[in-house]
Design brief:
seven-stranded parallel sheet, about 40% helix, globular, about 675 residues, alpha/beta
C-alpha cells in the first residue's frame, strides 16, 4: 500500500489530494493544526509553536503555508510558508519529500518560464539564503508570531508593492527544504493556479460573479496556467522523480478565462479589465519536462465546465474551519506588544496612570480631535465607561427621573441606567439607520420626567445628532451617547466625540480597536472629568484601564484608518450583494462614515437561514434582542425594533477579512437565499 504524509494537509489542495489518494487505496496521514476532512489519520500539530512530531512512514508531501497571496497582513506569508517549514526541517532528514511550491517564484522574469529560469524578485537568491540562515536559527525554538514577526516582516518590507511577498516566501521555503533534504530524495513541484470548487481563487470567483451577473474583473495583458485539484494526487500515485518541475496546463489570457467562464455560466456579466501594474509573466510556464516524463495536464475547457457545475451544486462548507461572526483584530506589531507587556510586568508598572495608559489617553484625544474643554478617560470596559459617563454628567437618578433610550442596543446600555436608579422609557429606532428616532424621542420627552437621553451609534453608525439636540437642548435634557461601536466613525466629517454632552466607547474583542479583548474610553467635559476622578463615591476605582490592555490599544489605534478601510471594503461587498437579494441592511446618512463593527441585515426566516449558513461554514449571530421585550420593558410597542428583533442577522465582519472571503460569504448567502 502506498503511504503519504500530508504536512499542512487540511487546506483545499491537501483535502483534494487526500481524497484522491484514499480513493486509489493509499494510506494518508494529515499533519495540521486544523482537522482534515475525510477518513484520514490526523496528527494535530501547530508547527510554529509545537514540537515537530515524528512523522509516520511514507512520502512526505509538504503543503505548508498560506495559499492566499494577498492577506491583510503580508508578513504572515513568510511566517506560515517559510518559518513553519523551517520548524519542520529536522523531521525531513532521510525522507522522500515532495514540496508543493508555486510558479510565482519566478517573479517578474520574462517568459517563457522553464525550471532553469532565474527568479526576478525584490531579493536575490543570495539574499533569500541569508534570510533562511536566520530562519533556521530562529526555528530551533517555538516561533509564535510575537517572536517570529520581525524576521517575517523583513520579507514583506522588501516588497513595498505587495505583489511578490508570496513568491519570496515560497522561494524561501524551497531553499530551506533544498538545504535539508538529499537532492535524490526531493521533488519540488512549482504548481500553477489550482482550480476546483473549494479553491476560492480567480476561476471560482469569476464563476460565482458570472452566476450573479456581476462584472468579471481581470487584469489586462496577463496570462495564467491552471491545473485541476486532483493533479497532485495523480503525480504522487504515478511517481515523479527528483528535481524541480513546472506543473500546469497551457497558458491562457485572463480575459479568455473570464470569457469562457461567462459562456459556461450562460451569463451576460461584463468583463472589467484593469491595467497590469507590474511586469508579470508567471503564467507563461513551460512544462516540457513534465510532458516528456509522461505527465500531462489536460485542456482547460473541460476543467472549467466541471468547476462551474461544482460551484452550482457543491454542498461542502465554504470555510473550513468555520468563519466566526467576529474575528478580533490581532496586534499589528505582536513583538512590540509582547515586549511592552513584559516590561510592564517586570517593572511592576501595570496600574493605570503609567506610560501606556497615558500615551493611549493622549493619542485618543488627538484621534478624536478634541478641543481643550474635553478630556479622555480610558477604562477597564465599555460598560465601565458608560456608567462613569452618566455618573460624571447627570449623576445617579433622583426620585422620578427617567432615561430615554433605544431598546435595540446591547443590554449594558439599559443595565447601567437601572443600576443608577433611572426609570427607563424605550423609544423606537429609525427604520433606515437603526439609530434612535428623533421624533420618537420628542414624544418621550414631552411625557415629562426625562433627565437624560442616551442615544446609541448602532454598530458604529452615527446618530442624527443635530435632530436629537434640537429635541434635547430646548427641554433642558442631557444628550449622552453610547458610542461603544463608533471609534473610527465620522459624523459629517468629524470623529464621533463631541456631538453629545459626553460619549462612551468600547474596546472589546469585536470592536475596530480592541484593547486585548476588554477596555473602553469616554469623552467628558474637562470639569466633569476632574470631578468624577475626585469623587468620594469612587466611580473610577478599579474601573480605569491597566497598562497591559493599553499596550494593545496603542498598537491598534495607530492603524485606525486602515482598520476602518478594511471593514468598509467587506461592507461594500455585502451591500452590493444585498441589493440583489431579499434582505434589507442598515443605511448610513449622507456625510457620515460607518466603521462597521458589525454588518447586519434583516432576513426573513432568520433562524433557518442562520442554520443553512452554519452548514456552509459561515457563522452568524442575531443582533440585538429587543430589551423592551424582557423584564426591563413596560409593554411598549416599537415596530421597527420588533422587526429587527425577529429578523436582524449579523454576518462575519472584521478588519482581518479579505474581499475574497467576503465574496465567499456572499456565495453562501446566494445558496441560502438566491
Amino acid at each position: 500500500m502506498d503511504q503519504f504524509v500530508l504536512v499542512g494537509g487540511s487546506g483545499f489542495l491537501g483535502t483534494a489530494t487526500a481524497e484522491a489518494l484514499l480513493a486509489a487505496g493509499a494510506r494518508v496521514t494529515t499533519v495540521d493544526r486544523h482537522p482534515p476532512a475525510g477518513a484520514v489519520d490526523w496528527l494535530r500539530v501547530d508547527l510554529l509553536v509545537d514540537d515537530p512530531p515524528e512523522l509516520p512512514p511514507g512520502v512526505v508531501v509538504v503543503l505548508l503555508g498560506a495559499s492566499d497571496p494577498r492577506p491583510r497582513r503580508p508578513w504572515t506569508l513568510p511566517l506560515h510558508n517559510a518559518i513553519s517549514t523551517a520548524r519542520l526541517l529536522p523531521r525531513l532528514a532521510g525522507r522522500q519529500v515532495v514540496l508543493t511550491s508555486s510558479v510565482e517564484v519566478y517573479g517578474g522574469a520574462a517568459g517563457p518560464l522553464t525550471e532553469d529560469t532565474p527568479p526576478e524578485l525584490p531579493w536575490t537568491v543570495e539574499e533569500i539564503d541569508r534570510w533562511c540562515v536566520r530562519a533556521r536559527d530562529l526555528a530551533r525554538s517555538p516561533c509564535p508570531p510575537w517572536r517570529a514577526a520581525p524576521l517575517a516582516r523583513a520579507v514583506a518590507d522588501a516588497d513595498p508593492t505587495g505583489r511578490w511577498t508570496y513568491a519570496l516566501a515560497k522561494l524561501a521555503q524551497e531553499r530551506l527544504v533544498t538545504g535539508a533534504v538529499d537532492p535524490d530524495r526531493l521533488t519540488v513541484l512549482r504548481l500553477a493556479n489550482v482550480i476546483g470548487a473549494g479553491q476560492h481563487r480567480v476561476a471560482t470567483r469569476l464563476a460565482r460573479r458570472a452566476r450573479q451577473g456581476l462584472p468579471l474583473p481581470v487584469t489586462a495583458d496577463t496570462v495564467r496556467s491552471f491545473l485541476p485539484a486532483d493533479a497532485l494526487a495523480r503525480l504522487l500515485l504515478d511517481g515523479i522523480g527528483p528535481g524541480v518541475w513546472n506543473v500546469g496546463g497551457e497558458p491562457v489570457p485572463l480575459t479568455d478565462l473570464a470569457t469562457q467562464i461567462r459562456e459556461l455560466c450562460d451569463s451576460s456579466a461584463p468583463l472589467l479589465t484593469t491595467p497590469r501594474r507590474t511586469p508579470d509573466s508567471s503564467g507563461l510556464v513551460v512544462t516540457d519536462r513534465l510532458t516528456a516524463a509522461g505527465h500531462r495536464i489536460g485542456p482547460l475547457r473541460p476543467q472549467l465546465a466541471k468547476l462551474v457545475a461544482e460551484v452550482d451544486r457543491d454542498p461542502t462548507p465554504l470555510f473550513r474551519p468555520p468563519l466566526p461572526v467576529v474575528v478580533p483584530p490581532p496586534p499589528v506589531h505582536p513583538e512590540l506588544v509582547a515586549a511592552r507587556q513584559q516590561e510592564a510586568l517586570t517593572s511592576g508598572e501595570v496600574k493605570h496612570g503609567n506610560r501606556w495608559t497615558r500615551e493611549l489617553t493622549e493619542r485618543l484625544g488627538k484621534e478624536l480631535d478634541l478641543d481643550d474643554d474635553h478630556r479622555v478617560l480610558v477604562t477597564a470596559s465599555g460598560t465601565a465607561a458608560l456608567r462613569i459617563m452618566v455618573a460624571a454628567t447627570v449623576g445617579p437618578a433622583r426620585p422620578g427621573d427617567v432615561a430615554v433610550l433605544p431598546s435595540y442596543t446591547f443590554p449594558a446600555t439599559a443595565e447601567i441606567l437601572v443600576q443608577l436608579g433611572y426609570a427607563l422609557r424605550f423609544v423606537d429606532v429609525d427604520a433606515a439607520t437603526w439609530t434612535l428616532d428623533p421624533e420618537g424621542v420628542a414624544v418621550a420627552v414631552a411625557q415629562g420626567g426625562v433627565r437624560l437621553v442616551l442615544c446609541v451609534d448602532t454598530f458604529g453608525n452615527p446618530c442624527d445628532y443635530p435632530a436629537l439636540r434640537a429635541v434635547c437642548d430646548p427641554a433642558g435634557v442631557a444628550l449622552l451617547a453610547d458610542s461603544a461601536a463608533a471609534l473610527g466613525s465620522l459624523h459629517q466629517g468629524r470623529p464621533v466625540a463631541q456631538q453629545a454632552l459626553a460619549h462612551s466607547y468600547s474596546m472589546s474583542f469585536a470592536k475596530v480597536v480592541s484593547a486585548g479583548g476588554a477596555g473602553g474610553a469616554l469623552v467628558l467635559p474637562a470639569d466633569a472629568a476632574e470631578a468624577v476622578l475626585a469623587s468620594p463615591a469612587g466611580w473610577t476605582r478599579s474601573e480605569l484601564m491597566n497598562e497591559l490592555h493599553a499596550v494593545v490599544a496603542v498598537d491598534q489605534l495607530a492603524e485606525l484608518d486602515t482598520l476602518v478601510r478594511c471593514r468598509t471594503e467587506v461592507a461594500e461587498v455585502y451591500a452590493a450583494a444585498a441589493r440583489r437579494l431579499p434582505v434589507e441592511f442598515q443605511q448610513v446618512r449622507p456625510g457620515d462614515r460607518h466603521c462597521w463593527v458589525h454588518w447586519v441585515a434583516r432576513v426573513a426566516h432568520r433562524d433557518r437561514v442562520a442554520a443553512a449558513l452554519a452548514a456552509l461554514g459561515v457563522q452568524t449571530k442575531p443582533y440585538f434582542a429587543a430589551i423592551h421585550r424582557g423584564p426591563l420593558g413596560g409593554g411598549e410597542r416599537l415596530p421597527v425594533t420588533e422587526r429587527l428583533d425577529a429578523e436582524a442577522l449579523a454576518l462575519p465582519m472584521s478588519s482581518e477579512l479579505t474581499v475574497e472571503q467576503a465574496e465567499r460569504v456572499v456565495a453562501a448567502l446566494h445558496r441560502c437565499l438566491g
